[in-house]
Design brief:
heterodimer, A: alpha+beta, Ubiquitin-like (UB roll), five-stranded mixed beta sheet, 5 strands, 18% helix, B: alpha/beta, Rossmann fold, 13 strands, 15% strand
């Protein structure tokens, strides 16, 4: 299964686990599966339409899904997914 | 409410979901990670903040203090702002517009850039919150301003900058006795490191955990423009964009003055300017999208604008669209030409970011985005002496002669001959 890196502010929802696993063929399915195991995670990552929030970045093997297929981005066995809040500054 | 709390500046508010937060050193919404912004009680401000009251106050940015996010009296940078708004007919002619003004923050006090505005607010607030150490991630101007204002206020400071900045900007921080830390990397990497340090060390990073306060300081540039135009919003404003924050805050200033009845509502366009070598906001705007694609390796002489992941890019795009404004970008050669054009017509020596603003204003006129019969304000944000590397050897060289009248006359005669041919 793909591994997912959870950022510090969301680890309260994953029992402080930094890396978790989830099943799914694309990001949308992965997030749905995550929410099943860690209730409340989806609403922190996605807006009411199920799209990834503006100030949350989701990377599949270091590629921002905004420049792939957004939530339909395909995920393969062994992929690394990172959820990273945007950094404000400048 | 705490009796020392401002009756006007009420809370911090998430720009995305609207959740309210206390006025502390926090900058991101716990729920959706949206940026926090200062919120005000405009109903309380309206009867107090009149044109007459503002005009009776000293000529600094603090004459609009009810609209700035601190609780008490400002204690850092009390002399900052109220820079000249210069009407230049020669610049107007060169650009091809009816009327051109330069909001001249090259002479902002004390460090010759608009960053003194944001630092004045951030450090006044840092003191109210009890910080003893302040810091910033910077492309140069902010570092200069944090260093100078912290020194004057007796605060310890750390400024973190990309290691390859212009000499003038490095020296312009070191001289104040601050701790300058050069990072081998681009600004975005410096910024990422600073957010880690801010979390771990508990320092007051003006553009990280103090960002909601810091960012509001930029509004004063917009307030001043309106007041100096005779309490009017300019038809066009051209603003340089790095993070995109200044552009959104100038527009916020216009909106607040309108809301408070200090100016009449009027159509106005806010345009953004970037260097082509780091133009994530302008590129998105030109494509008609609001998703900003980061620039991993900025390549431009306008180092002060070289932010590849602009935090306020999305909001800047929406501000431009909302006002009917446009974005433009320009090459390094055009930046140098822009610096020279502004200097030769308005007598104002701007840093590279000012070259960007001037060159992009020219393009906006050439493409009809700013009409020939229109009036435009150029926001010129930093002094040219800070970025001399960019134009050395590109403005000619002095002619050298001995102290002899004969040699001088030969030189002038030679020029006259050249001129005639």
């Amino acid at each position: 299964m793909p591994t997912i890196r959870i950022p510090t502010p969301l680890r309260k929802l994953t029992n402080e686990q930094e890396v978790v696993q989830a099943a799914g063929l694309n990001i949308e399915e992965i997030i749905a599966d995550l929410d099943k195991n860690f209730p409340g995670l989806k609403e922190r990552i996605c807006d009411e339409n199920g799209n990834v929030r503006r100030f949350v970045n989701v990377f599949v093997n270091d590629e921002d899904i905004r420049f792939l297929d957004e939530k339909a981005t395909a995920v393969n066995e062994g992929d690394e997914i990172s959820i990273v809040p945007a950094i404000a500054g400048g | 409410m705490d009796k020392n709390s401002s009756p006007y500046f009420t809370s911090l508010k998430c720009r995305e979901c609207g959740r309210l937060y206390p006025k502390q050193a926090i900058h991101v919404c716990d729920f959706d990670f949206g940026p926090l912004e200062a919120a005000y009680d405009y109903e309380a401000i309206r009867p107090v903040l009149t044109r007459k009251l503002i005009e009776s106050r000293p000529q600094t940015m603090w004459r609009y203090r009810e609209l700035l996010p601190i609780d008490g009296e400002p204690t850092v940078g009390t002399q900052v702002g109220f820079t000249p708004l210069v009407k230049s007919d020669r610049l107007a002619k060169a650009l091809g517009v009816r009327e051109a003004y330069v909001k001249n923050d090259t002479v902002n006090y004390p460090t010759l850039s608009f960053k003194d505005r944001v630092v004045s607010v951030a450090l006044s607030r840092a003191r109210e919150l009890g910080f003893k150490i302040v810091a910033c991630a910077s492309t140069g101007n902010l570092a200069n301003s944090v260093a100078a204002n912290a020194a004057a206020a007796g605060l310890q400071s750390y400024v973190l900058i990309p290691a390859d900045l212009e000499q003038g900007k490095v020296l312009g921080s070191l001289v104040y006795g601050t701790n300058v830390i050069g990072i081998h990397g681009a600004y975005d990497q410096v910024n990422r490191l600073c957010s880690e340090i801010a979390g771990k060390y508990g320092w007051g990073f003006v553009n990280v955990n103090l960002r909601p306060y810091y960012a509001e300081g930029s509004k004063s540039m917009g307030f001043e423009i309106c007041e100096q135009l005779g309490w009017k919003i300019p038809q066009h404003t051209v603003v340089p964009m790095a993070s995109g924050s200044l552009l959104t805050k100038i527009h916020k200033a216009y909106s607040e003055f309108t809301k408070l009845g200090l100016v009449e509502a009027a159509p106005h366009k806010v345009h953004g300017a970037q260097a082509t070598g780091c133009s994530p906001i302008s590129a998105a705007m030109k494509k008609g999208v609001d998703i900003v694609k980061p620039v991993p390796k900025p390549q431009t002489i306008a180092k002060s604008l070289a932010i590849g992941t602009p935090a306020d890019g999305y909001y800047a795009i929406h501000t431009m669209n909302e006002t009917g404004g446009s974005a433009e970008d320009c090459t390094d050669e055009e930046i140098v030409e822009g610096i020279k054009l502004l200097a030769e017509t308005a007598g104002i020596f701007a840093e590279t970011a000012g070259g960007v603003t001037t060159a992009c204003a020219k393009k906006l006129v050439e493409t009809g985005k700013i009409g020939a019969d229109d009036s435009v304000v150029l926001c010129i944000t930093g002094h040219g002496l800070k970025t001399q590397e960019a134009i050395i050897g590109k403005c000619g060289e002095p002619r050298l002669i001995n102290p002899s009248l004969r040699e001088f006359e030969a030189l002038i005669a030679g020029e006259a001959a050249t001129f005639k041919s």
